[in-house]
Amino acid sequence: MQRISLRSFLVTLLVILMIMAALLLYLYFILSRPLGATAVDTKQMKHVFSIYGYGTKTDEMLSRPTDVAFDDEGNIYVADAGHARILVFRSSGQYLRKVGKKGFGKGELMEPTGVTTSKDGRIYVADKALSKVVIYDGKGKFQSEFKVMVPFKPHVENGKLYLTTYGHIMVFDLKGRLLTQWGKRGREEGDFDCPTGIAVDKSGKVYVSDTLNLRIQAFSRSGELLWVKGKPAEDIKAADRAFGLPGGMAMDEKNLLYLIDAFDNSVKVIDAKGKQLATLGKKGVKEGEFNQPSSIAYDQNGIFAIADKFNDRVQVVKITIE
After folding, report:
1. Which pTM does this prediction carry?
2. Residue from 35, 119, 129, 19 nearest 72 by CA
3. How far is the C-alpha of 297 from the C-alpha of 68, rounded, in Å?
4. Element (H, E) at 18
5. Cα separation, 2 vs 303, whole angstroms
6. pLDDT 10s digits, 280-300
């Protein structure tokens, strides 16, 4: 009887400890979220809301989101790299659906680094680990995929799919057929080293965030170099660095560029000729602050979504540049 009682006691104690651990984990995730009341707003950038996931369980929350995109309806697409999937939310932040799942098969993902959408609703996902681009329809059903060595960021503009890779810019039609490409891996102007951001204006000019070369470069539609801002640095603490670590990039209807600078924990606003106009944001965990953000997307009326990577969230903000 004493043995049975002792065993029952130990089982009960174990169950209680497990419940307490689960409650503590839940409280940690809830209490570690910055409260809306602590939002850090400025005249030029105001926090609207943040997306942390679609629930409170670990696998329902964002984990190292690397990219973000809007569709024509204002829905938000998040490359949730830590969980190898794309999550889709309404413009209000309400969860809609998952796209893709972890695996090595067709239509499956391992490390989605970039996402974009086309006007007909298709979803394009770059998977760096599997060296491929996957195309889904508007409901998230797998359509096709094609191989590309180490792709980073896809972007649809002017009816074409632009893609940054470890050392090239590639341009495809919307079915994934290669139209043209330019560049090579290197440090000279016109070369690239793991570019992770791209923007294209209506005239076809291409702006590239040349990440490991610590610069942005602008090109004509045919790939002719137009201008360069920044340069490779020998030292991470070099005083003449134009950027800490340039990442994702977006462009608004005024042809202003919005560049994520991950190491500076900020958004740099740059005109179409390379002149810097503003620096927005700072390091922190409060709403409106960042911890090594990775990407930015533009919707309309000054509304942007920012993949705040190491805060495990996407922030939606309104930016006003006069």
Report:
1. 0.87
2. 119
3. 6
4. helix 2-31
5. 67
6. 999 999 999 999 999 999 999
